[in-house]
Amino acid sequence: MQNGIHFISSSLDPRVKLIVSMSFLLLISTIHDALILFLSFIAVLCAWLLAKLPIKTVSYFFKSIALLFAFMFISSTVFSRIAPKERLTYIEIIPAVIPLIGGSGIYAEILLASITFSFRTLSLVSMALLVSLTTEPSRMVSALRKLRCPYELTIMVIITIRFIPLAIEQWKKLAAVANVRGIETSGIIGRIKSIKRLFTPLIIHSIRRSMQLAYSLDARGFRATKNPTTMENLQLGSRDYLMLVFSVLLIALSIVVLLEVFSIQNISVELMKLVV
Amino acid sequence: MTMETEQEKGFFKRFATFDLVVIAIFVGVWYGVQQIWFIGLAAIPAPLSWVVSVIVYELLAMTLVLLAATIIRKRGTVFLIFFLHGLLEVVLFPNIFSVIGLVSDIIPGALIEAFFYITGGYPNNSLKAGIGACVRAIVFYPFQLLLLTVTYPEYVAFVEFFFGVPYGVFIVLNVIVGVIFGFIAGIIGYRIGLKVKEAI
Q: Please, which of A89, A117, B133, B135 could form a disulfide with B62 given CB 3.0 to 4.6 Å?
């Protein structure tokens, strides 16, 4: 458990997960059609279901995702940069018979652009979250090592990830101690004042931990050999290769969309015209 | 304290185990405290939360960076802290925005490092530490805010509506706030660093 998040270990190699997610991101960045982006989001949702994450974790993150979608949608709709000459279809939301606010509505093109943008961001965030939640940080670090990242750097990443929740916990403990002593640490002013009071002991504590950890690492032969062995050796399996082929297909599809070989950009526009 | 072997080569050779651990733990503190702060900021109205977040971010980040630089005093320390911070975001949250974040972390880190070496090595007074910390704000905010115009174009109109100023002015304001508080944070970090160095 890290930062209140449960990581589950999936059978896919973390390197493959990274490649698949990046290919997917490339694809959704090239598509400008709301319907296809919606289908992409459904595909990510299916991947979430397959991941069999705990319900509590899923609901926690989907509440955040829903808020993000609402924010993106409203801000995109209100602040849309579509030129007035491109706004063609007006949808009346409040009937004209109502005084003062009657006749208010929105242009279909703006609505479509907002939906497109929101689904693109939503797919992107959901995919990234899924990769994060289904990969233990230690496996991600092993992947970095396999990708020829320096050994020292991978150890530093592991230490940092391990120390984030500890730093949060330590900060909360120090704030609790300050509160017990009658020092205010909530509210804007209290928080600003608390920085000085809490920061110094936090740093001293961190330095002490650093010294202990450095001794401990040295005692265990850190940097004693050029190629240290690892507890878990990442090996690509048949499923990994299958997913790599899938990634290649996604990248190929992105190139096809970029080159506009298929005119799939305007499906939603055509559908909206039919509806309106 | 640390084990130096003949097999160590390259960039990391100059760092003892303690140095690497201090950098890693400080980045963990940076990330952890930042999370606590930004959760609290969500309840504040947008323009105010922007000011507070820039101030807190600069104070926290640059204090820790200059603190580590003062303790370790080895070439590449500042760069490594920024690089590790960016890399951590990519590892914890792999997406295109975190990759952009990694790039926007590396450039100021390298420039601060270059500044120290042009002016004669790592800071030996608080003024130099303060000015070094300002470099980050000058590079980081324009770079990241200009990238946002590509990744999230609606942000421009959003900012102009909430703050009532053109986007260019908003970038300049960010830089000014960043420079002022980066300077203060650099001095604070250097002074705490000296005390900690004496203590250890």
A: B133
d(CA B116, CA B122): 5
Query: Which of A129, A131, A159 minimises the CB distance to B21?
Result: A159
CB pairs under 8 A between A and B: 170
Residue A191 confidence class, pLDDT cut points 50, 70, 90: low
C-beta atoms of B192 and A214 within 8 A: no
What residue numbers bound the domain in which A191 lies?
A: 148-219
- Interchain contact, A152 vs B87, CB within 8 Å: no
Residue A213 near chain B (CB below 8 Å): yes
Q: Closest to A150 (Cβ–Cβ): which among B12, B29, B98?
A: B12
Contact A54, A95 (CB under 8 A): no
- Domain assignment present for residue A7? The answer is no
Q: Are residues A204 and A246 in the same domain?
A: no
**Cα→Cα distances A23→A28, A35, A43, A95, B95, Å:** 9, 19, 14, 45, 11
User: Which of B22, B23, B29 is the best mutation test for A, with the most CBs of A within 10 A?
Assistant: B29
Q: Are A44 and A130 in contact (CB under 8 A)?
A: yes
Question: Looking at the whole model, is its pTM more than 0.80?
Answer: no
- A128/B24 Cβ within 8 A: no
A154 with A135, same domain: the answer is: no
pLDDT at position A204 is: 87
**Which two structure tokens, joined as six digits, stand for A172?**
């909360």
Final residue in a domain of this structure, among A174, A190, A219: A219
Q: What is the pLDDT of residues B76-132, one digit of tens each?
A: 999 999 999 998 888 887 777 788 888 888 999 999 999 998 998 888 899 999 999
Quick one: A85 and A162 in the same domain?
no
The answer to whether the Cβ–Cβ distance between B153 and A81 falls below 8 Å is yes
A203–B154 CB contact, under 8 Å: no
- Alpha-carbon Rg of chain B, whole angstroms? 17
Residue A92 host element (H or E): strand A90-92
How high is the mean pLDDT of chain B? 84
ipTM rounded to 2 decimals: 0.86
| Confidence category of residue B6, pLDDT binned at 50, 70, 90 | very low
Residue A193 has pLDDT above 60, yes or no: yes
Q: Which domains does chain B have, with CATH numbers?
A: 15-199 (1.10.1760)
CB contact under 8 A, B157 and A79: yes
A67 touches chain B (CB under 8 A): no
Chain A residues within 8 A of B37 when measuring between CB atoms: 191
Does residue B66 contact residue A217 with C-beta atoms inside 8 Å?
no
pLDDT tens digits, one per residue of A226-276? 777 777 777 788 888 888 888 888 787 777 776 665 555 555 666 666 665
Tell me which of A3, A204, A223 to substitute to probe the interface with B (most B C-beta atoms closer than 10 Å).
Answer: A223
